[in-house]
Design a protein that fits this description.
With about 375 residues, the protein is an alpha/beta fold. The chain has eleven helices and ten strands. It has a six-stranded mixed beta sheet, with helices on both faces. The protein has a two-stranded antiparallel sheet with strand order 1-2.
């Protein structure tokens, strides 16, 4: 019976996964999904799933095989034409089921649906140390004293020597009763990565454009975290000047000012040089803009920074151009002309939320 329940549960999970994959494209463009993110899971609304089941009538009811009846007579309880009190309608009922998935499960579904290749980390691996408690000893530092074991040992000793009084159960540990945790240090190889998000917050980037960046970044994060044990995220915003900010500021800064993209590229390169040695880190700069840079001279500076400082240390440099009614859209053309054949550079145009799905495929389809 237990095995049958497990098999049925596994089959149900497969059905749910199929439903989610079937609707993944519509989920991806919805920002509401990010709002349902918990600490370790995401709540996914899926269509109601009807599984075949038997329904038994009452024991006193007649039916097929008992009582009077002729071939063709309806079974008792079966709805007949003309019965019912409701008004006919043409729309399906709104039934749904909320299913919790871990971020890893969500990333796996994304990989399966978009046929994304697994990432092969480059460079040497970092070694992380983890303390693992392995047993109990009679000596050790007071910070590792095991209070429960010490108490039990003192109780056992007092019972053995006859000093324990059930009417006055006072347990007083002595030095020989003390027990301490023992530990060892495990060293674990860990491939680390950093993703550096840069976003244009000049006057031409409105709330809709930033929402597209927010949704795209969520899915990029989910996939990269699935492929790396440790992933750090850094955030840079820029108009005519660039500065590093936290995640909340990155997505909620009000737009204003002109645009000098080189300020963001220079700050990104400085952060990499300072904090992420290329021998130990897998580095992914992602830049989002509407493609409207201040001047041809600044664009030329950007191309030089990419060629000399960013591309040599990056696994991939990705640029997503979000369509804006105020932006010229020229920057992606300049990047394509200079780096269109470079395997480390990925360019993607995102016209609206419907374009997010194809953009994620553009960014992740090479395997990074």
């Amino acid at each position: 019976m237990s095995l049958r329940i497990q098999n049925d549960h596994a089959r149900f999970k497969d059905i749910v996964r199929g439903k989610i994959k079937q609707n993944l494209k519509s989920y991806i463009k919805k920002g509401e999904l990010i709002g349902k993110q918990g600490k370790d899971t995401i709540t996914i609304p899926v269509p109601r799933i009807e599984l075949p089941h038997f329904r038994f009538g009452g024991k006193s009811q007649g039916g097929v095989g008992q009582g009077e009846g002729k071939p063709g007579d309806p079974v008792d309880g079966e709805p007949q034409e003309g019965e019912g009190t409701g008004k006919a309608g043409q729309d399906a009922g709104e039934h749904g089921l909320d299913v919790e998935l871990t971020l890893d499960e969500l990333a796996d579904l994304l990989g399966e649906e978009l046929k994304l290749p697994r990432i092969l980390p480059k460079g040497s691996e970092l070694v992380t140390e983890r303390i693992k408690y392995t047993g109990i000893n009679t000596v050790g530092p007071e910070s590792l004293k095991h209070f429960k074991r010490t108490y039990k040992q003192a109780l056992r000793r007092q019972i053995a020597v006859g000093s324990y009084d059930p009417k006055n159960p006072v347990i007083v540990p002595i030095r020989e009763d003390r027990r301490y945790r023992t530990w060892r240090i495990d060293q674990k190889p860990q491939a680390n990565a950093v993703i550096i998000y840069m976003m244009d917050v000049s006057g031409s980037m409105g709330d809709e454009q930033k929402e597209i960046v927010r949704i795209t970044s969520f899915w990029l994060d989910a996939w990269l975290r699935r492929n790396y044990d440790g992933l750090q995220s850094r955030y840079i915003i820029h108009d005519a000047a660039a500065r590093e900010v936290d995640k909340d500021t990155f997505f909620h800064t009000r737009e204003s000012g002109g645009t000098m993209i080189s300020s963001a590229y220079r700050l990104c390169a400085d952060i990499i040089d300072k904090d992420y040695p290329v021998a130990n880190w897998n580095i992914y700069p992602f830049h989002f803009s509407d493609g409207d840079n201040w001047s041809v001279d600044d664009t030329r500076t950007c191309l030089g920074l990419m060629r000399d400082r960013l591309l040599p240390v990056s696994n991939q440099f990705a640029y997503g151009q979000v369509e804006s009614p105020y932006g010229s859209g020229q920057f992606i053309k300049d990047l394509a002309e200079q780096f269109g054949k470079n395997d480390k550079v990925t360019l993607s145009e995102i016209k609206d939320k419907d374009g997010i799905y194809a953009s994620i495929k553009d960014f992740l389809g090479r395997g990074l």
